[in-house]
Design brief:
Elements: H1 21-34, H2 36-56, H3 59-71, E1 76-79, E2 95-98, E3 105-116, E4 123-130, E5 136-142, E6 151-152, E7 167-178, H4 190-224, H5 237-265, H6 271-293, H7 307-319, H8 331-339, H9 341-345, H10 352-356
Parallel strand pairs: 1-4, 2-4
Antiparallel strand pairs: 2-3, 3-7, 4-5, 6-7
Helix pairs in contact: 1-2, 1-4, 2-3, 2-4, 4-5, 4-6, 4-7, 5-6, 6-7
The structure holds 3-thiaglutaryl-CoA and flavin-adenine dinucleotide (FAD).
Length: 360
């Protein structure tokens, strides 16, 4: 991916491609068509870690990490979720306090879990509450600089989804981290959530790619599989409807992602739009993939046909970076989405959403 220029592709400079958000969405879609786990690895590196450094890092941090990360020579991980705090990261327990013996260092303790790439990451962007202020801050932890016993990143084994991606924990026990490795100016949840806005935008694109692969596989199978008087099952309208529904949702989801991408390129996208397309595209991709799975009958259970792999992966996409129900929970967000509805709907949804504004 580094050789192809896919990592941090929207970043300008530092050896990154500097393409538009729409172009990066198309890349994401093509990668996730292969497997959501590949897109996951790419998203964490590009949006969550490189994006965070580009937006909030010091010039020294950018110069040090971004060129190597763009080439894929340094691998990143993003530690927000904790064993006791997933949907509610504001309650995190990981803390950073002045190091008792090393001047100019913080001492970070706590545990993060379900962290993509953590077992093999070189640079871990960990979010922790700063002692004294209690505010959440971002810290770049370099594995090679951690004394033995202060950083462990055990893998989470035997996952039934996203098997092409490595996931693990980050366990920090009084880990010394230089003060220069803290993001200087951003505090509170705005830091991690700003990184998540880009990653969630990527997921909204990516899952349409996974769904299109499910459609393609189901179509091929339905044309080849014959039942009742030698007819291919694709001849039956009940089977055709499953393909038509899935194709419609893949097309609508792609168009919505393009529209938000165009707004993002103009600096006019708001987080609520991203929540809306992340939630909708993930939910529709998962629902349709589960329905298309039925076309394979018993063969759906075999890894050979690939459909079960996508279904298990798409459950994860609906869960991480904010579970779908969580993306629907804030009434304030709903009001703002409706206020922004003209921009979001653009040519896609016409006046339909505008009509809803009458109810708010
Ligand atoms: P709330 O009080 O609503 O907000 C706290 C502060 O954060 C700001 N904020 C945002 N800023 C920028 N972009 C966004 N999308 C933002 N969302 C919130 C907000 O303005 C406020 O700022 P300030 O300055 O007033 O303090 O927060 P809350 O504590 O009530 O939480 C509500 C909610 C729903 C936003 C939040 O809990 C949530 O989104 N939960 C989901 C957690 C999540 O997404 N975790 C992701 C972990 S990383 C991951 O899954 C990577 S998987 C990668 C892969 O493998 O592909
Ligand atoms: P919980 O928060 O315990 O939620 C459980 C259920 O309760 C959900 O259905 C949720 O919607 C519901 N719920 C919770 N609160 C409410 C409420 N107020 N109202 C209604 N329903 C509610 N995290 C990272 O930080 N970095 C990563 O790289 C990363 N990679 C991941 C990779 C994989 C493969 C997976 C599975 C997860 C990853 N995550 C990562 C973690 C992911 O972001 C969390 O799993 C997700 O945010 C949900 O948190 P949770 O699992 O603790 O679920």
């Amino acid at each position: 991916m580094g050789e192809l220029g896919l990592l941090g592709s929207t970043i300008n400079g530092y050896g990154c491609a500097g393409v538009s958000n729409v172009a990066s969405g198309l890349i994401t879609k093509a990668v996730e068509r292969v497997d959501s786990g590949y897109r996951s690895g790419m998203s964490v590196q590009s949006s969550l870690v490189m994006g965070g450094i580009d937006e909030f890092g010091t010039q020294e941090q950018k110069d040090k990490y971004l060129p190597q990360m763009a080439k894929g020579k340094l691998l990143g991980a993003f530690g927000l979720t904790e064993p006791n705090h997933g949907s509610d990261p504001g309650s995190m327990e990981t803390t950073a306090k002045p190091h008792p013996t090393k001047k100019g260092y913080f001492s970070i303790s706590g545990a993060k879990t379900w962290i993509t790439n953590s077992p093999i990451a070189d640079v871990l962007l960990v979010w922790a509450k700063l002692h004294g202020t209690g505010k959440i801050r971002g810290f770049l932890i370099e594995r090679s600089e951690c004394p033995p016993g202060t950083l462990e990143t055990p893998a989470i084994k035997n996952k039934n989804g996203l098997r092409a991606s490595l996931t693990g924990m980050i366990q920090l026990d009084e880990c010394p981290v230089p003060e220069a490795n803290m993001f200087p100016d951003v505090e509170g949840l705005r830091g991690p959530f700003s990184c998540l806005n880009s990653a969630r935008f990527g997921i909204a694109w990516g899952v349409t790619g996974a769904l299109e692969d499910c459609i393609s596989r189901a179509r091929t199978y339905a044309l080849e599989r014959k039942q009742f008087k030698g007819n291919p099952i694709a001849k039956y309208q009940l089977v055709q409807k499953k393909l038509a529904d899935a194709t419609t949702d893949a097309a609508m989801g792609t168009l919505a992602a393009i529209q938000v991408g165009r707004l993002k390129d103009k600096g006019e996208a708001v987080p609520e739009m991203i929540s809306m397309i992340k939630r909708q595209n993930c939910d529709r991709a998962l629902h349709n993939a589960r329905v298309l799975q039925e076309i394979f009958g018993g063969n759906a259970v075999s890894d050979e046909y690939g459909i079960g792999r996508h279904v298990a992966n798409l459950f994860v996409t609906q869960t991480y970076e904010g579970q779908s129900d969580i993306h629907s929970t804030s009434p304030l967000s709903v009001r703002r989405v409706l206020r922004e509805a003209d921009k979001l709907s653009g040519l896609i949804l016409g006046r339909a959403i505008t009509g809803l504004q009458a109810f708010v």
